[in-house]
Design brief:
By secondary structure, the protein is α/β, with parallel strands linked by helices. About 50% of the residues lie in helices and about 15% in strands. The chain has two domains: about 180 residues, NAD(P)-binding Rossmann-like Domain (Rossmann fold, 3-Layer(aba) Sandwich), CATH 3.40.50; about 80 residues, N-(1-d-carboxylethyl)-l-norvaline Dehydrogenase, domain 2 (Orthogonal Bundle).
């Protein structure tokens, strides 16, 4: 049987370590698994830096920081991370085969009553679940970057996902302090479909010389009260991530999601946004 106080997070990247931090801050014991020690070290440093910023801003005290760090274990062994977990969240890169392979391994390791979730932003939950023994217990838990700050949690229901699984996901969302929406398993769901459409149009405007990146972003921030403009947000998410989502939606939904040539060129040049130091802005 599973331990309802334990969450396994699979992948120590930007999303994975953010999810781990939020779960630990909510009282869960968290086990983060990643096959590479370097990724684990970077993920742990990311959590420490995030908590340090919160202490500096007076949002938490030092004792809370230490308590959160003490609830997170980091390791390379998948079986150890998943053992006894009540919730297992896959947070590896946005590649169907990579996610399917990992979830298939998890299916044989996780407790039978554990909630299985994928932090995908656009891939089909139904397809991800298709090789599992019990596809009914897989759900999408789409967190947003930066995870400790963003309030929304998009819960994606596959064709075979049961009401009981959705209820488990809703209870988890409440415990980690996120506001959930429940959406059907349609390419791009609700948020990625709208978000990349706006981002792609902003990139086309930049290509056409309509305005500078700063002014395009300022138009949405001041004119429509967006907290961050679409180009700066693309830098934060990662240009390579946005390109992968657009390519997927282009295949699934059609020409309106064809990626701008400028985006593809920038990814080829290694200008991936904040994580590489340069995208539409210099970081």
């Amino acid at each position: 049987m599973s331990d309802e106080t334990k969450v396994a997070v699979l992948g120590a990247g930007t999303m994975g370590h953010g999810i781990a931090q939020v779960c630990a801050a909510s009282g869960y014991r968290v086990s983060v698994s990643d096959p590479t020690a370097a990724a684990l070290e970077k993920g742990e440093r990311g959590v420490r830096d995030s908590l340090d910023r919160m202490v500096a801003k007076g949002k938490i005290d030092g004792a809370t920081r230490e308590a959160v760090l003490g609830r997170i274990a980091w390791g390379t062994e998948l079986a150890t991370a998943v053992e006894g977990a009540g919730v297992v969240i896959e947070a590896v890169p946005e590649k169907m085969e990579l996610k399917r392979e990992l979830l298939l391994r998890v299916d044989g390791l996780a407790p039978p009553n554990a909630l299985l979730a994928s932090n995908t932003s656009s891939l089909s939950i139904t397809e991800l679940a298709s090789t599992l023994r019990e596809p009914a217990r897989l759900v999408g838990l789409h967190f947003f970057n930066p995870v400790p700050v963003m309030e929304l949690l998009e819960i994606v229901r596959g064709i075979r996902t049961t009401d009981a699984t959705v209820d488990q996901a809703l209870a988890f969302a409440a415990r980690v302090g996120k506001t959930p929406i429940v959406v059907r398993d349609i390419p791009g769901f609700a948020t990625s479909r709208l978000g990349v459409a706006l981002g792609a149009e902003a990139i086309r405007m930049l290509e056409q010389g309509v305005a500078s990146a700063e002014d395009i972003d300022r138009a949405m921030e001041l004119g429509y009260r967006h907290p961050m403009g679409p180009l700066k947000l693309t830098d934060l998410v990662g240009l390579d991530v946005r390109l992968a989502i657009l390519d997927h939606l282009h295949r699934e939904l059609g020409e309106q999601f064809r990626a701008p040539a400028l985006l593809r060129q920038m990814v080829r040049a290694g200008k991936l946004g904040k994580k590489s130091g340069e995208g539409f802005y210099k970081w």
